[in-house]
Write a structure and sequence with these properties.
Blueprint: H1 3-15, H2 22-29, H3 33-45, E1 50-53, E2 59-62, H4 64-67, H5 75-90, H6 96-108, H7 112-122, H8 134-149, E3 151-159, E4 164-178, E5 181-188, E6 193-198, E7 202-211, H9 220-228, E8 239-245, H10 247-255, H11 257-262, E9 263-267, E10 270-275, H12 277-281, H13 284-288, E11 295-299, H14 301-325, E12 329-335, E13 338-343
Helix pairs in contact: 1-3, 2-3, 5-6, 5-7
Amino acid sequence: MSKADNMLSILWMLRSGKKMTAQQLADELEIHVRTVYRCIDSLCASGAPIIADSGPNGGFQIMGEFAESPLLFDTEEQKALVHASVFAKEAGYPFTDALNRAIDKLKRYTNEKQLHQLERHSSGISVLQPPIDGEQKSFLRMLEGAAASGQTLNMIYAKGRDGNVITRDYDPYGIVHWKGQWYTVGYCRLRREIRNFRVDRITQLELTDQHFERPEDFSAKNVLLNQLLPDNLLDDSLVTVRIQGHEHVLNELRQHWLFGHALTDQSSGEVVFRLEPSSLQAFVPYFLLPYGKALTILEPDMLVMKMAEVSTGIAEHYRNMLSKSITPPKEIKWEGKDYKILNHRNHKQPKQS
């Protein structure tokens, strides 16, 4: 470690309130004892009130008033940092190794009581997020670094479900984590406009010799939201969607990122949204389908028809699956919650539940 790191580490260790000898400090930091003395001399010259006691029970300690300096973290601040690290790591934060080292330092230079409290707080919070692989973390590090240095990237990107890949030069202005996904927002030199891209669809990134200047006051978060969500709920191209249902179902719809943003009216047992027509033909039916009979779509008819189409397609898919698992099926007879399948050639199928 550098001299500055050693000096800060000594401050952290003395902040615990324990009296420590130069040899104990040297052993803890794995440095020479003479280095400890030089660091303490520099700290004292900088105004740190370190007291040295001689004798068998002697050692260095720091005055209590300095230990509570706002330049150091109090208990609540330490807890907040540990909790923030849990969120960051589970979200796929690309600099997890550096984050872990920082938290290790935080725990290393606390006394036993403080460490026990930190461990209790860190074990009391959990975050569930879809895991991301090492390659995506590598891309995130490149994107963040290129955004900071203003360096253009050559990017190969897989577009949509068809898997078609497109190569483009791209100026990354920032990265955004939203709803379990990482996005990058910047200037696409192929399309000559500001675009956003999902990082999990990037297949290759390479640095180029080109550079760029990010616009002043640019907000990657605001640009992403404006591109993904409609700007004006009164836009004539949007479609009114009225849904009735159980209150817990409507609450879940209101909390969803798309429906919550598009909410225009609500009353007891009913909500009204303004959505893009393309979304009603794409993912909205699949999101509403699991709620089954717990909701009723009052309008538009096009969404009701799409729900019926999707439901029929799913039912047919499972019928085909069932026909392949039982050879050859002749009849499915429903009896309440039970059913029995009758086969050809007088083969009796036992009743299943």
